[in-house]
Amino acid sequence: MKLKEAARGALAAFPTTAIDGGLALLEELPDGSFTARFDDGSGVTTVILELSDETARLACTCGVSDCVHQAALLAALAGDEVFPARTSAPPSTTPTDEASVVEARTTSFSVAELTAAVDGLVGAICKLGLSEESEERDLALARVIELLAGQDLPDLKRTVATVRRTLTTVPPSPSTALPALARLLRISADLASESQPQRTLAMKTERREEVKLLEIARYSRRTPFGDRRDVLYFLDLDEDVLYRELSASKPGGSAAAFSEGPFGKRLLGNLVSIEEGPVPRRIRMLQYATVGFADEGDFDHVLDCCQTEVEALYAVLREAVELGLDAAEKVVMFSPERVLPSRSGIVLCDDSDALLPLARGRNPAICAATDLLDRQGTILAIIGQLVLEHRLLTILPLTALVDLEGGRSLRRLT
Asked: Whole-prediction pTM value?
């Protein structure tokens, strides 16, 4: 299917109010960014268009100014065929096109229907609890999953996946379920007020050049909808802050991060775009070069940037809850004062004897691999996700900085 045919068919399946609102938003959009990826069989190129009140800026990873990729993105955004006026006659379609439009209409949903289903799911869980079997609760979850299938709502899909995973865990964890339920209500309210599309389209960005980055962690996740999400975490070696790079794919599609190279790479971001938001902020690599791997100076830098007090990690968790974020997105860097043995495995400890166990209930295999690293050498730091288990803060390691026989290295655990 051609791009414009696909866009016409998909747009025709939207409710009239959504189309009119989207067109009005595009007309009035004061600033923001649009990103497109083109794969012509020989390679993938990425184009970004940044808008502001004063100007529009274009950049492409092919390195050619005024290239065909930039022209394609501009044509897609500007063409009347892609965004037809509501007063114009409907585009002519072949029988195949019409069947596609009809199929799209049958799988479309109204915002009111989806928000009602999400609110119903939250209400069913609050009324019926997590532990006991409940057909009403299971039907409410199945209805939300049905409405979300094929929809581009990644935040809502990830949160529903967390709730589903909690309900199928024995025993279920209230400390995981409660923040997820709060996020469901927040996302539902955003959808109802139509603030979610505005925040996506008008996301403010900062453009920077010559940014020195070290990849310190990465992980992949699949949702019950078959979507795959890859996340790479980078330490800015000049600003000492974390960024995350995201890549998502639909069922059957390939998912690859925008930046290429084996884990632990160093990048020079010749041109990057960084979205506004809580740390770690999202980064997009517009033009970059791989410049080797971490050295001893980089390992010292990682340790200097690590948190060393468990209480500071509780503050990070509280901030995530207050912002309505998934605590797992708040990847942290922690350097323990000591690593203590226990019957279940190692426990991290700071200089005030506060304990930070590993999130063994979330992923026993990763935690067992971390125990093995401790037996082989010395764990200097853990980069991982915060997990609240039974009212106790834990960490799920993604990466460990270890000293093995006098040599330090970053070991990926996921």
From this structure: 0.59
